[in-house]
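Researcher: Here's a chain I'd like modeled. Treat it as a single chain, no partners, no ligands.
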Amino acid sequence: MFVVDAIVDAFDPKIELVEAERDCVVERHGGLTLITVTVAGPAAFAAGVEAVRVLKAAGIAVIRTYADLVTRQDIADRAQVTRQAVGNWVRGERSGSQPFPAPTNLAAGGLWLWRDVNEWLAARGLRHDATEKPTLRTLARLDTWLFDHARDDTIFGKRSA
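Model: Modeled as a single isolated chain. Structure tokens:
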């Protein structure tokens, strides 16, 4: 998932160009435009670089990655359990031998990286998302790579003037 320059029109031809190559979802939240691109790859970093290539080829400027952080309610909704069940897991009650992942951020009672929670759910045989998600480390690597290449098109076969 990436933060991109604003895409105001849901029927923007740039989105169609991305959709011709990959599955994607575009969301707008206030002044933030997010695009999720599904890319297979040998590792999450390589898949992320390929996603950026696809977006850039469509004329969409990528600003940074966007970590899929979830609240207790988000976890309950995605795992199809009650918020109380998630509260028990967070407090270490009924979580079994595998402790629940630590929150990534303490804002709003805790925010967790969906990838960490998703892996925890999968290990316990609970409802989870089968698509592999990037780690915080991979997101940081991609952000560093994006920053380093923000004005350098040589990696995409073009040289900046």
